[in-house]
Amino acid sequence: MGQDRGRARPRGEESPEPPRPGLAPAAGAARAGGRLSALDPARVPLSLYVHVPWCVRKCPYCDFNSHPLAGEVPEAEFLAALEADLEAEAERAGGRLVDTIFFGGGTPSLLSGEALARLMAAIRRRLPLAPNAEVTLEANPGTFEAARFAAYAQAGVNRLSLGVQSFDDAALRRLGRIHDGAQARAALAAAVRTFARVNVDLMIDLPGQSPAAALADVETALAGGATHLSCYQLTIEPNTPFAAAPPTLPADEEMAAIEEAVEDRLMRAGFVHYEVSAWALPGESCRHNLNYWSFGDYLGVGPGAHGKLSTPGGIVRRMKHKHPRRYLAARAPFVQEESRVVPESLPFEFLMNALRLHAGVPREWFASRTGLSLDALASHWARLEAQGLVEPLAWRIAPTERGWRLLNTLLEEFLP
C-alpha cells in the first residue's frame, strides 16, 4: 500500500495550503512543451476555503498555520476582517458559482454557532452558491458541544470533518491531543446524528502501533457511522516539537502491514480508496478535496489562507497574511504573497494533484485547466506508459495501479 507515494496529510487536503512548486513572480506567458492558450475561468470549478487560525493547544506534530488561543476567540474583530477579505475575493471571482466551502484550521469548532451563522450569511451575500453546495467544517472532539453542532448545521454546514486521529487514550496522549477516546466517540455520535455526511481523520503508523491497534481505530469509526475516512501517516515535519525530539515510528515492514490491514478492512466495508489518503462509501467523497485534486480553483480567506484562481492570463496564487495579529491589523486584500504559476511548472502542478486520484481525471481537463495542449505531456507519458506506470491517454489522465503506488517516482518525470 503506498510505500512510495506516502500517506501524510498533504498541504491542500482539508487545509489552507496546497502543494506549490515552481512559483515565480507574475510574468508574461511562455511556452511549456505545448502552445499556451488563454484560460476560460468559467470552465474551472470554484471553491472557497476559510481559515480559522486558533487552537486550544498546538499538537507536537503540526506545522499548519495554527496558534494556541489565549482567552476567547476575538469573534467580532475576526468576522469583520473576514467580511472585508470576502468582499475583495468576491470581486476577483466575478460572479462565478461556488460549489464547495471548507472551514479549516486551526480549530473552526472554536467559533460560536452565532459567529458561524453570521459568516455564512456574509458568504451568501457576496458569492453565488450552487444549490447543492457542500459546506464542510473541521471540528476537534476536545471542543465538542452538541448544541454547537446543531447551530452549525442550522447555519448551513452539511458535512463535518472530525479530527479524531485515534480513539486510543495512550496514542492520543503521545500525539499531544486535547481529547480522549470517550470524547472522540461522543463527538462522532453527535456528528452522525446532526450531519448527513461525516468524515473521521485518523492517523496511522503511529509510534508503537500494531495492525490490530490501527484496525481498532478503523472499527470504531465504522461502527460510529462515519461515511468517509481520511487515513494519514504520521510524518515528522520540520520546526515542530516532534522534529526536535522525534518519536520512534514503526519500521517500514510494520508500516506496510498496518496499511495493508487498513486497506483490506475498508474495502470489505464497501469503502472506495479514491485518493491516496481518502476512503469513502460510494457517493460520499469529499467534493471540496476533489476540486483541489482536479486542479480546480479556490478562493482563500483568513490568516494564511491560500487561493488559486484561473484568469485569461494564467493561474494566480495568493497567500494571506499568516499571523492572526498581522491579518487582523491589515486591510483588504490582506495579501502577503501573490504569484503567477509559470507555464513550465504547470504539467507537474496539474499531475501532482490529479494523479493522487485513483481514477485520474478526464484528459480534456489538462487543457482547460492549464492552457496547455497534451503535447506538453506526450514524450514523458510515452516513457511512463512503457514502464506500466500510467494508462494510455485515450480518455483520461490516470496512473496504473502500480503507478499509483509509486507516485513519487512517477512524478519525478515531470519536475520542472
From TrEMBL:
Cofactor: [4Fe-4S] cluster
Organism: Tepidiphilus baoligensis
Region Disordered, residue ranges: 1-29
The protein's role, per its UniProt record: Probably acts as a heme chaperone, transferring heme to an unknown acceptor. Binds one molecule of heme per monomer, possibly covalently. Binds 1 [4Fe-4S] cluster. The cluster is coordinated with 3 cysteines and an exchangeable S-adenosyl-L-methionine.
Keyword Heme: yes
Family: Belongs to the anaerobic coproporphyrinogen-III oxidase family. HemW subfamily.
Keyword list, A-Z: 4Fe-4S, Chaperone, Cytoplasm, Heme, Iron, Iron-sulfur, Metal-binding, S-adenosyl-L-methionine
Protein name in UniProt: Heme chaperone HemW
Primary subcellular site in the record, as a coarse category: cytoplasm
